[in-house]
Specification:
The complex is a heterodimer of chains A (about 300) and B (about 450). With about 300 residues, chain A is mostly helical. Helix content of chain A is about 75%, strand content about 5%. Chain A folds into two domains: about 55 residues; about 240 residues, MetI-like fold. In chain A, helix 1 crosses helix 14, helix 2 crosses helix 14 and helix 3 runs antiparallel to helix 11. Chain B is built from 16 helices and eleven strands. In chain B, strands 2-1-3-10-6-11 form a six-stranded mixed β-sheet, sandwiched between helices. A three-stranded antiparallel β-sheet of chain B has the order 8-7-9, sandwiched between helices. In chain B, strands 4-5 form a two-stranded antiparallel sheet. Chain B is globular, with a radius of gyration of 26 Å.
Chain lengths: ~300, ~450
């Protein structure tokens, strides 16, 4: 009686072992598929992230590196230039992101049901700045904004909207908004394409049913279209926010953070501290703070926009 | 499906292993190329580089800003290549890899390269950056190859750190202002320039009168452009401020910043009112390059930053007639900022490379043919004591005569790079009215003095 039982026991054991081996094989092949991406992720994202946190605890003076703990963070808390740059970055994001969402939605709604040729034309027009070199774009905008020979001053003076030339990038009143205007033009391309695709996927039956029920255009938009394109909006908001927080090239090439830190942003300051001054510790601390802020805002956005999102 | 997955996984693994092995095999082979081959073991003690041959040369990297632009035979960048070719012909066992860098992004490229340990072996630059590198231990001293007694004392002092020479000073040149002589002639205002006076000295009032006259004659032309963006060329505006009423950026022993004294504040006040009148253009968001381009294209009548090095290519191009003029100065004695330029050698942990680099440096400065030619391609004057009168051009002869007014050289002060980040924001703040000249200068000096301590 004991023999068959023990045979059964060993059979189950063998079975479990075989299952485990099979699972291990499957897991191994899955992990192998993940490996190339994982290598890139670890090398170019995870390791630099950890290294950045590590570096932020040191003071760099050439080859003399001293451990200073959280001193860099303490300094940043009272650094007026850093706080001004943080405020500028937040303002740029706070203004640019809503404009990008509203403008790209407006364009998309107006072109998504047009003929393929018209759609392609407008998508192309708005996407060109997104794929153009930032350097070329800034060269063009630098001439548009040039205080003496810029086309913007010329047009405004010709139409008698201004009497004398405005130093668009040199004045406290205009510099930040001039940068935001460029940022918006370079940021709307992708959202327009995404919104056109999202709007094309909204079922016409829902819209027709709503019309039959007497819903006006605004009700159709707010009650049917907006909830259905919410996943796209979430993506656009998160990506545009991250891009706006990381604004660097436009600042570096057009204003170098001026006038008097009026357009200085955290990313620009990270660059200045690390590359120009060789202060890698405090620069890394700024990077860590920026990452934390972006992470926190993205989490809030996910929480806020993803209530109706179903994947 | 499982079979397929398995096959793909195995293939992927094999591919990665092959890639890994391939990169693994790189190391020994590259080591083999840099190590001295056995066949060339017949080395002599006298020449440590004799183990390198034409087939197996030692390679050094040379990065250069557009410094050698004043040679009439070669276009920008080509002179560097010609110099390298001549050096390689004379030293066939040394190969020089050349990379051109620009004044705009070159400093950042250099700093990045230093941090990632991919920096060049030789760079032709000025003490501002070079002494900073020396203080951080990135360079090899050049005392063993230079007889310092043959060089100008001011140039040696500017090129030394802790008593050792880290930049081989080849050229010196004063920074001054430039005026478009032809343009002023057309406007009938040439007589307002102090060209016929001794040392071309002039006062702030005379300068203002000229700027006002230009502005009234043609409001579309900027009388001058006080640029205030980026950091390139910021020595021009600093010298401009310090000269107007006889202030200076630092004290004489270069231990503290002093530009916020009474005369410094007076100078900034004058600048503010001149800017508000439109006499100094709209340069808050323009850098030195844009300002000089405006001058060269006739859109600005003068430039606040000009030098023999900038003048020489303009002289060769002959598109307009620039003249060099010192900054207006109410004390009667100008104090000029000046350029010291020459090559430095990086300590890349390879003694042979340092030796080869020093030979290249020696060739570009002391070779019978290429030494003088290289110096003249920069438009600078010789840093060798007694070597004067290299140029026939009247403007360059005048500029050379101004070397007696060289001020205290402060570009080697600790924290110089950090100080520079605060200079233009201060100028911008004053011009825009965010702060009074005194507030701006006081805040700048506080920051700059703190940067001296912070750098230690």
């Amino acid at each position: 009686m004991t023999e068959p039982l023990s045979k059964m026991g060993s059979f189950e054991k063998e079975n479990r072992k075989a299952k485990r081996r099979r699972k291990l094989r499957e897991n191994t092949s899955g992990l192998l598929f993940l490996l190339p991406t994982l290598v890139f992720f670890v090398t170019f994202v995870l390791y630099p992230m950890i290294k950045g946190i590590y570096l932020s605890l040191f003071k760099f003076r050439g080859r003399n590196v001293t451990f200073v703990g959280l001193e860099n963070y303490e300094k940043l808390a009272t650094d007026q230039v850093f706080l001004k740059s943080l405020a500028n970055t937040t303002l740029i994001t706070g203004i640019a992101v809503p404009i990008v969402i509203v403008f790209s939605m407006f364009v998309a709604i107006n072109i998504y049901n047009k003929s393929a040729a018209v759609r392609s034309f407008f998508r192309g027009v708005f996407y060109i700045p997104a794929i153009s070199s930032v350097v070329s774009i800034t060269v063009v905008w630098a001439w548009i904004y040039h205080p003496q020979y810029g086309i913007l001053n010329y047009l405004l003076k010709s139409t008698h909207l201004i009497n004398q030339n405005v130093d668009w990038l040199g004045s406290n009143q205009t510099a930040l908004f001039a940068i935001i205007a460029i940022l918006v033009t370079t940021s709307v391309g992708q959202p327009i394409i995404l919104y056109v695709a999202a709007l094309g996927n909204v079922s016409k039956e829902y819209l027709e049913a709503a019309r039959v029920d007497g819903a006006n255009k605004w009700t159709i938009f707010t009650q049917i279209i907006w909830p259905l394109i919410m996943p796209t909006t979430l993506y656009v908001v998160v990506v545009t926010t991250i891009n706006s927080f990381q604004i660097f090239a436009l600042i570096q090439l057009l204003t170098a953070g001026g006038p008097n830190y009026g357009t200085s942003t955290i990313m620009y300051l990270v660059y200045t501290k690390a590359i120009v001054e060789g202060r890698f510790g405090i620069s890394s601390a700024m990077g860590v703070i920026l990452a934390l802020i972006i992470g926190a805002i993205s989490l809030i956005q996910f929480k806020f926009f993803s209530t109706d999102v179903e994947y | 499906m499982k079979q397929f997955k398995k096959m793909v996984s195995v293939l992927l693994l094999i591919a990665m292993l092959i890639t890994g092995c391939a990169s693994g095999t790189d190391t020994p082979s590259s080591e083999a190329t840099t190590a001295a081959p056995e066949s060339t073991e017949a080395t002599t003690e006298a020449d440590p580089l004799s183990k390198y041959t034409v087939e197996n040369p030692i390679t050094i990297k040379f990065w250069n800003f557009p410094n050698f632009t004043g040679d009439s035979e070669f276009a920008k960048g080509d002179y560097d290549l010609a110099l390298i070719a001549a050096f390689e012909a004379a030293n066939p066992n040394i190969k020089v890899e050349y990379q051109a860098i620009e004044f705009t992004d070159g400093p950042a490229k250099l700093e990045t390269a230093i941090q990632s340990q991919t920096n060049p072996d030789v760079v032709y630059d000025a003490p501002g950056r070079v002494i900073d590198w020396a203080s951080k231990g990135y360079l090899v001293p050049l005392d063993d190859m230079v007889d310092k007694s043959t060089l100008l004392e001011a140039a040696v002092t500017a090129s030394s750190y802790d008593g050792e020479l880290y930049l081989y000073p080849q050229g010196v040149a004063p920074f001054m202002m430039g005026f478009n002589k032809g343009l002023l002639e057309e406007m009938g205002l040439l007589e307002m320039l102090p060209l016929d006076r001794e040392n071309r000295a002039w006062t702030v009032e005379e300068y203002e009168a000229l700027l006002t006259a230009i502005h009234e004659k043609n409001p579309d032309i900027s009388p001058a452009i006080l640029f205030a963006k980026s950091q390139g060329g910021d020595q021009g505006p600093r010298a401009f401020v310090s000269n107007l009423y006889g202030s200076w950026i630092t004290n004489e022993d270069v231990s503290a910043y002093t530009i916020n004294d009474e005369n410094g504040v007076k100078a900034m006040e004058w600048i503010k009112q001149a800017y508000d009148k439109g006499l100094l253009g709209q340069g808050i968001a323009l850098d030195a390059g844009a300002s000089i381009e405006a001058f060269r294209s006739g859109l600005a009548a003068s430039t606040i930053l000009y030098s023999p090095g900038l003048y020489r290519p303009d002289m060769i191009a002959q598109k307009f007639t620039p003249v060099l003029v010192p900054y207006p100065n109410n004390t009667g004695t100008p104090e000029l900022e000046y350029l010291v330029a020459g090559p430095c050698v990086f300590d890349n942990g390879d003694e042979d490379k340092a030796i080869a680099s020093k030979r290249f440096v020696d060739f570009m400065i002391n070779d019978a043919e290429w030494g003088k030619r290289t110096l003249m391609s920069t438009g600078n004057f010789s840093a060798k004591a007694g070597e004067v009168g290299l140029y026939d051009d009247a403007e360059l002869v005048f500029a050379e005569s101004m070397s007696k007014y060289f001020g205290t050289y402060y570009n080697t002060i600790p924290g110089f790079a950090q100080m520079r980040t605060a200079w233009f924001p201060m100028v911008q703040g004053v011009l825009n009215g965010d702060q009074t000249p005194k507030e701006g200068l006081d805040a700048f000096v506080d920051f700059a003095n703190a940067s001296i301590e912070d750098a230690k």
